[in-house]
Every structure is written in C-alpha cells, then in structure tokens.
Amino acid sequence: MSEPKETKGAGEDLQQQALFYHRYPRAGKLEIQAIKPLGNQRDLALAYSPGVGAPCIAIHDNPSDAAKYTSRSNLVAVISNGTAVLGLGNIGPLASKPVMEGKAVLFKKFAGVDVFDIEIDAPTIDEMVSTISALEPTFGGVNLEDIKAPECFEVERILREKMQIPVFHDDQHGTAIIVAAAILNGLELAGKSIENVKIVASGAGAAALACLNLLVSLGAKRENIWVFDIDGLVYPGRETNMDQWKAVYAQESDAHALADHIEGADVFLGLSVAGALKPALLKQMAEKPMIMALANPVPEIMPDLARAEREDAMICTGRSDFPNQVNNVLCFPYIFRGALDCGARTINEEMKMAAVRAIAGLAKEEVWEVPHSSTGEPLIFGPDYLIPSPFDPRLILRIAPAVAKAAAESGVAERPIEDHEAYYDHLNRFAFRSGLVMKPVFAAAKAAEPKRVIFSDGEDERVMRAAQVLIEEGISRPILIGRPNVLETRMKRYGLRMRPQEDYDIINPESDSRFREYVDEYLSFVARKGVTPDRARTIVRTNTTVIGALAVKRGDADALLCGVEGRFDRHLRDIGNIIGKHEDVRDFSSLGLLISNRGATFFADTHVTYCPTPEEIAETTIQSARAVSRFGMAAKAALVSHSNFGSRDSESATRMREALAIIRERMPDLEVDGEMHGDTAISDILRKRVMPNSTLSGEANLLIFPSLDAAHITMTVVQSMLDALHVGPILLGSALPAHILSPSVTSRGIVNMATLAVVEADLAQEERRNAV
Ligand SMILES: NC(=O)C1=CN([C@@H]2O[C@H](COP(=O)(O)OP(=O)(O)OC[C@H]3O[C@@H](n4cnc5c(N)ncnc54)[C@H](OP(=O)(O)O)[C@@H]3O)[C@@H](O)[C@H]2O)C=CC1
Ligand SMILES: CC(=O)C(=O)O
Ligand SMILES: [Mg+2]
Questions:
Q1: Keywords for this entry (predicted)?
Q2: Is this model's pTM higher than 0.90 or not?
Q3: How many whole angstroms from 170 Cα to the centroid of ligand 2?
Q4: 219 Rama sector, left if φ>0, alpha if ψ -120 to 50, beta otherwise
Q5: Which residue, 157, 172, 257, 488, shows the most beta carbons closer than 10 Å to its own?
C-alpha cells in the first residue's frame, strides 16, 4: 500500500487512522442495499422479469410516475471532475472519490438522501455538461462538487438551464449559505451591521465568489469587499488570471498584497489554501473581527495562532476538531431533503435564503441533544457557537421544511407539501430514531393531565436539559432535587430558560420544610431494618433517591426517575423499601427496549433477578407484555433458551417450559411460545420448520431470558452491533411509577423515560379511581 503524501498540518496519527478507517473492515465508506424482499421465485418475478415491465410502461405513459415506482425522487448524484478537491487542488477524479463517497454518506446519515457518487474524467466545460445532463433520467437532483472556478460557474449555469431537476454546486451555494448564517450571527454579536463591514477575501474561486455574492444580496457593499487570489488583489484591468466573475469585485489600488488591505477589516473570509493568512496581520483588523479560515483540510490560519494574536476574534474553520465548524455539511443534506420532498425543479434564491435564516436561527435555540463543543464547553449562542453543530438533529427539522415552503411559495415545487405538520412529524421520526416507536407514548403523555416527575439527579446537566424539553413539550412539570444556587448557576451556564416555581419545582436536600415529615415517613418503612432515627435523618438529607421515592409515596410527585449515578441495586433497594411492589407481583423485574433500523425489540429481565424461578419468569413476561402495549403494539413473546421446543432437558430449559404453562394459564390472550432458540424467535420461517403449530407468529418483539446474564449480555451486544437506541431500563412491578436510569443515559433517553413514567402515572391514577 502506498503511503499518502503528508497533508500539511494534519497529524500523522490522524492520517494513519483515516487510512485504516477507509480500508477496514471493507474498502470504502458505503454500499447499496435492497429495500424490497428478494427471497423466492415470486419476489424475483415481481422485482425483475416479467413484473418489472409494469412500472416501465407506467413511467413511459406518465414520466412523473418515476417518483412512485423508482428510487429517483430520493436519489442525488454527487458529481466531481476532481479539479478543486477540498484545498488539495486538481488531484483528478479518481483521487476525489473518497471525498465524494464521504458526501454520499453525509447525505444518507444526516438526511436519508440516497446518493451515487460519480467521478468523471471530464476536464472541459463541454465534456462536463454533456456527461452530467445525460444523467437526468437517473436522478432527482445533482450536487456538483469540487469543480474548480471559473469552469464551475458555466457548467452550473448551462446545466440549470438544460435540466428540470435541482442542480446545486455545493462548494458555491452550500458554503455561501452556511458562511452567511455564521456571519449574520457573528455581526449581531459584535453589534455591527452588514452594510458597513469591511470584508477581505482570500480566494476568488467557486466558494469565495458565491459567498460574496450571497453576502452582497444580504446587504454587504461591493466597495467594502477586497478580494485576493494567487496573484494578489483582484483589481480592474488586471490581465493575468482574471475572469468575469472575479472582475465583479475588482477594486482600484496600487497596493496589491493582502497585507496592504487587512487594516480595519471586520471579516477575513478564507476560501483558498492552508496558511494564506499570516498571524501578525490580525493585529490590524477591526474590533471583534471574524476570522473565517475555511480552507480544508488545513485552514488559512490555525485557530490557536489566531487566538494568540486576537483575544476578541470570532474564529471559524471548516474542521470538526475546533468550535464553529463552518462547513457546507450543515446545508447540503437538508436543502436537498427539502427540495426532493416537494419535487422542486431547481434550488432558487428564496430557498437558499430560507436555509440561511433557518441555520442562523437554530444557533440561538437551546441545545439539548449535543451538549458540548469540541473543547468540552456547553454550546450557548456566542463567539464560540455561532452556528449549530453538524450533529444537531434539529438541522433537518428547521432547514428542510423552510426550504420546501420557500420552493412552494416561489412556484418551483412540483409536489408542494400539503400537510406541514405530518411532514414535520415524518422528519422528526427520522431525526430521532426513537420517534416512531415512542410516538404513542408521547401522544398518551400529552393527552394526560400534567404529571409531576421528580428527578433525584436534578443537578445533572442531562437531567436539566431533559427537564427543559419536558416543560416545552407540555409533558410534565418537573421537580428537581438539588441545591437552588447550584441549579441556578448551571441553568445559566447551559443557557436554559426554565424558571423555578414558574416552570418547575425544587426540593433542596440541604433544607426543606417537609423534611421532618419525610424522616418520620422513612422511619416507618425502615425502623425495623436496622435504621436508627439519627441514621434516617442523615439518609433523608443525603440520599436523593430516598427523597424522590418519599415524595412519590406521599403524593408530592407522580413518578420518580433516579439512577444517573450510583448502583442499580442500591436504588432498587430504596424504591423497594419506600414505594414497594405492586400488589399483583412478587418481585420487581426490568425491561429493555432496543430501537434499530429493524424496528423495536424488548428484552427481559435485564437488571433484577439473576436466576428467576418459573413463577418469576411468568410474572416478568406478563408485566412486560403490559408495558409493551403502552407503546401501541401487541407483544409477541418468545421464551428463549439453548433448547428448541424440548430439544434439551436442562434445568434452565425446564424452567422456561414451566413458565410457559403458567403464562398460558394466567394470560391466555398473550401470543407467546417457547422455549426456543434466539434465531427461532426472530425467524418465522425457521420456527415453522421446527414447530409448525407454534402459538407465536411472525417475529417475536419480546424476548424473555432464563437468566439476567443472558438477557443483559444479549441486549448490550445487539445494541452495539445494530447501533440501536436503548430505552430503559423500564422497571416493572413498582407500586407507583419509578425508573432507575443508567449512568450512560442521554438527555433524549431521560425525556423518553420521563414520558413513559407520565403515562404510567396516568394509568396508576385511573386504576386508583376505578378501585374507589
Ligand atoms: N468550509 C467549507 O465548507 C468549504 C471550504 N472550501 C475550501 O475553500 C477552498 C477553495 O475551494 P474552491 O473555491 O472550491 O476552489 P477553487 O479552485 O474554485 O478556488 C480556489 C481559490 O483559491 C485561490 N488561491 C490558491 N492559492 C492561493 C493563495 N496562496 N492565496 C490566495 N488565494 C489562493 C485560487 O486562486 P486563483 O483563482 O488565482 O487560482 C482560487 O481563487 C478549498 O480549500 C476548499 O476546501 C470550499 C468549499 C466549502
Ligand atoms: C467542504 C467542502 O466541500 C470542501 O472543502 O470542498
Ligand atoms: Mg467541496
């Protein structure tokens, strides 16, 4: 394997890791996947000859049917001729392939857009135009990438005229949109107006000129813009290396070096090459300057050098390892998402402006899913957080609908979005994979009377961010256990808006008027378990799970969430002592939900009983099936084992068989079978082969295990292998709603569990009402 040439400034380690990443376990970054079954002759007859003739004729009769019967309306071509690959220059189409594969992956991961990356050996405008325009039948859109200026301008202009699908040169417009959003926000922070700022641009290529054009349409004055390329200042009458697009920004001056014009500049816009800005020049710039060093992979100036010169600077790069990543990845997946979803014929100025406003606006919203910058600082709108993080899942929710709306309003949408709420909901489910599965739970929680969820770890950042979402979504009124001064300081630090008393309540573990009653109540549960009154006082002031459980028991709260810190079994002991078990159960158990591209699967018992008896297994299955129904689905339970329908007579296989008999007696309506192998539980075909009369049909969605080891290990391995999202652990059998979170839980995970707890609290309330 030949070694790559050193990329200036990029660490040797990172380069080696990048080569490894691209090479293993398989070469490259993507593959094509079939989305329809192809398992038998019938499928083959439908997918291919003779069946495939039917959609062909339908499309021939009505070309717009291609959107119904093929992948075209979600398929974008990322096309490059390799003439301006990042800041690496004209390295040719073959060497550009890793970048284009990379763009394809970003399109798919961030916006669900399918991409063919197409690297073409087409150096001239004519060759590019004829090759690309001939591809129109295949694609719903064309993303031109890393094609050098000035050829890119003509290529894009001609293709836009010839083609009836969006043609978008990402290095021009994707970059311009994100640069404009960052500059608007940066100038707002600096208290400057775009009409008055001086902009010095290094680079007069595709990206730089498109950025300047967009900034001008936002109000920047041409006379305040100074442009430099490889030959220095772009000035009127310059004879070498000029073109009509650069000439727009030509400025009269006898001094032609960037150093001659940087004085008083408010914005340095670097879209050229590594190291083009000398640190010493920064001293001459205006107050609170914006340093946009956007060349990739190595910027015009490294942020640490820029910061050393100018404390007050707002520094942006195109890289993910520094704050303020100004990179077109924040734009292209989502602008295409919006354009494809409404069948836009083009991407026009209105759609671009809508994207600028959506990105700029999102940076000012509170962050809760991606809490920290690359330097570990919380993300709050300010000099180090001018634009959203590329991992902010709300990018698709803000940009795509805004773009689709602008397309419809400007008359270029073939299929305008009719139901905006349903569209948002659809995107929301994409952004948060848990969305579809959690939807019935959220709907039930919102429909219920507001419930008070108490959080034992109220001072934890993830809990605070989740509490903010629960308030905003109208799901719960949170009660945070924590010291008021600590909560206040942290709310400010994380940029959260919720206010005590108005939006949420506090129980201060250091002083609360109710504590005497809490101690007495606690003693009533534990006085005969070796806890003295003195010890009880100490526990009630220091153990926040005990405080939370007491609050739920006394009716001061409706549900408890604890466990962000500490051992599961200790939290469970406290819940058991205070809240106790539901009268219908002998013991607690625990259910885990994994949500992956394959759907939702539940696992039990993942956290409580090491080696359950048949009675306990049956009880866990019944409790689990009831919990599954809260997600709007009917449980299909499989009792899994190393034994397949009596193939072994070991102790654990026998326990599962006995458990099945108990379940059938106690819950005859439940679709359940066992004991069976794990693959038999998942595959209907396999199951029919060994047990044609199985009482379980289709794929099991609830797997009940013979031991805690088996359940926990299987769930965590499957979670890692499928990159699945975990919801849980869901505590079963508690007399009142209470859950013990895991230390690795995210804010989103806490929101999910709190929402489930609200639904459980509502059901418990109804149960009590019915009992009266
Ligand atoms: N952060 C982001 O999202 C993006 C970053 N970029 C980066 O911007 C840079 C340019 O990309 P793009 O516009 O597509 O490429 P182009 O080839 O179209 O433009 C490159 C420009 O840089 C100029 N240039 C080259 N060397 C120097 C130098 N030493 N001093 C000043 N100017 C110089 C060239 O000058 P001349 O005209 O004389 O040849 C040309 O104007 C790349 O580094 C790329 O990675 C691009 C898109 C997005
Ligand atoms: C980000 C990008 O498109 C570039 O650097 O060319
Ligand atoms: Mg590019």
A1: Metal-binding, Multifunctional enzyme, NADP, Oxidoreductase
A2: no
A3: 8
A4: left
A5: 172
